[in-house]
Amino acid sequence: MSSEPSEPSHWTEHKATNGKVYWHNRVTKASSWVKPTELKTRFDHAVDSSEWGLNTVNDKTYWYNKSTKQSTWNIPDELRQLKDAIDAEEKAAADRIAAEREAEEKRIDEENKAAEDERKREELKASAQSPMLQIGAGSGAGASVSATGTPTLEGSGTPLAIGAGPGSVTPGLPSEVTPYEAKLALMDLFKKKQVAPDWTWEATMRELITSPAWKLEPSLSMKKDYFAEYIRTVSEEERAEKSRRMDKLRPQFRDMLARSGRVHPYTKWSTLRAVISTDPKLTKERSWQNCRDDVERKMLFDEYLKHIQRQEEEEEVKMKQRNLNKMRKYIDTTAISMDTKWAEFKSDLKSSREWRNDSELQRIDMVDVLNMYEDSLIAAEKAWQERKKKMKTERKRDQRRKREAFVTLLKDLVNSGKINIHTKWKDIIDDIKDDPRLFQIAGNSGSTALELFWDTVDEFQVRAEKVAQRVEEALLQKNVKFNEEVDYDHFASLLEQHGVNVSVEWDEWSVADIHRVINQQYAAQKLEATQQAERKRRIMIDDMRSAMRYLDPPLDADDAFIDVLPRLKELPEGRHLQDDTEAFQTAFERFMKRLKDRERDRADSRRRERRDSTSLKDKEREKERDERRAERRRSKSPHPDEREIKKARTDDSVEEGEMES
Length: 661
Known about the structure:
The chain is mainly alpha-helical. Among the domains are: 11-104, Ubiquitin Ligase Nedd4, Chain: W (Single Sheet); 534-599, Arc Repressor Mutant, subunit A. Helices cover 64% and strands 5% of the residues. The chain has helices at 42-48, 77-128, 179-192, 201-208, 220-260, 269-277, 280-283, 286-289, 294-333, 342-350, 353-356, 366-415, 425-432, 436-441, 449-477, 488-497, 502-505, 511-547, 561-569, 581-636, 640-660; strands at residues 11-15, 21-25, 31-32, 52-57, 60-65, 71-72, 143-145, 151-153. It has a three-stranded antiparallel beta sheet with strand order 1-2-3, with no helix packed on it. It has a three-stranded antiparallel beta sheet with strand order 4-5-6, with no helix packed on it. The protein has a two-stranded antiparallel ribbon with strand order 7-8. A hairpin with a 2-residue loop joins strand 4 and strand 5 (60-65). Helix 3 packs across helix 5 (220-260). The longest helix is centred in the last third of the chain and has 56 residues, at 581-636. The radius of gyration is 58 Å and the shape is elongated. Residues 1-7 and 128-175 have low confidence and may be disordered. It comes from Wallemia ichthyophaga. Residues 5-38, 52-78 form the WW domain. This is Pre-mRNA-processing protein prp40. Residues 96-166, 599-661 are annotated as: Disordered. One of its GO terms (molecular function) is RNA binding.
């Protein structure tokens, strides 16, 4: 069952600006970073009792182990299994409650329906047995007056309930009846005339229109309604009676079919009917003879056929489930890896003892086996991925521990005074070369030992820069300006003159260190300014070179720099370089070099075009010369037909010579 609180809670959930969730009580106005007990689920209580805790940072939640200090973004395996078990129990409980509620509702509906059916049957029985009207339908039936003066139907002696007032009653039909009495009279007439459900309204009118009871109800529409009601009642009674009879006959008929051994899931009614008609023993069966006709027999046969078909399907489903369980057990005992081929697995299966000794297992569909094989491959791959991921996480965690151990080693050296702002790697290598923490960090994918060492030294540099900044601010407060030209002696005298005690007031940093750091800062600023000016100068030179392309008249490759310089200074781009002749000359030389390269490229292109044109003309002349030579050879050689004639004559002369010899 769910562990959610049954009563509405006064706690509401909110989120702080840093993304962390907290809870606020509307009644007590109290706030808590921890989830209140009344809001916790079974899983929350289980987490509280475990070694794991859940925390949220920047809208991201992670799990941490309270004892090992291990953290992970994914829910731990033991908590995942516990959560799945709790969810399964809650789902089973909810399903059970829903099933019980549905069964209770169904039972109530059935009881209400049975009560309603019983009420209708009682009303119908009471209306059929009412003695108010008993009207006959025989020949010559009519109304008469009894000895007491009460109107009766002829031959019955039954008093007719009418609303007669004082005075004599004329023999014949009653002059006044109530609608209810007229309805009962018509219902009794329908019953005595044996009106069947297959009668039509027109046929019923033709049969009953001459009956006295027919005339008791003057409205034809009411007569039709009573007729429809009677037909419905009779039909329901016939169906109920037939249902009771068939319920009694059904088990006997099924037993007869089962004993005959002639009915299978594929048997047809025509086949069974022909077999039974030729078997006197079966035709004399009481269950066969108690059926009114073949329609009822076929209906019972169809029901039995569906029954055995359903049994066969259920047995096939059970057999399939048994085979799947056997196959699952076989796969669990077989070492299937990601490299296992389907052909190998299938061959091993068919040669296994489980397959050879189990004929039922041999009927399993190979598609199901293939699906289970694929599922096992997916599971094996997933397990391999999980192991790989876990190994990677463990490796990263181990590397982090090794880096932290080496950082601890460096901190020990800092505390012992062996590492300061002037320390080099070579100064401490002899102290740590035999320490196992140095060898453990070797080969790590993260920061190396040297990088961690320089990070430690950089911390000294950062601290020194902060101290130097504070010293400068102290001197500025005393109107003492400082620049890179102030040497160490002057700097020390300034500190002494203005009473600035560096060793005590500035974290025990020496005057020399502070002076060196300040000089480094000024040198870095000067270098940055120089580099910035150089970048700006290169940009202006490029702008000047681009502007030279649009001079009018344009520059020629033979122009001299001295002649062009006045024109360049008049350009907007040249106003920033008025005194920098070297910059003008650099831009001019680059432009001229590019101009000469373009002219050389154009000259080479023209030469290639001329060479290609000459080569094309030579090819055309060579082609024409070859064609003329071929034409001359054809004109000198005889025609092919003439060559054949000449050859034939030569052959004839040779044959004649042979004959003469």
